Amino acid sequence: MSSWFLKNLGDPLLADDNLEKIKTLFIATYDAAGSPSEMAVFRRHESQSLHCELVLYFPPLAAALASELNAHPCTKPEAHDLSLWLGNERAWPLLFSEHMN
Fold it and tell me: Where are the domains of the chain?
């Protein structure tokens, strides 16, 4: 299982309810899995012409959660402007080691 997943939440100003739901589900899933370092949720604000959208990225270890949220399979995101939102700080170097210098 090597696919990443993305969930576009649309306008960041309107995403609070979805973010809270996702955070609650992530914490339950993360705790039940034993808090694995490579289970995380990353986020980025992406421009779509004049509009900005909040996009969440789920690594392969978060596939079950991504599926529950109807996230779509995608390629591994570029690290540029990506930030760790949920999970252990070790997720960043483990999942994006090619960007660590």
Answer: 4-99
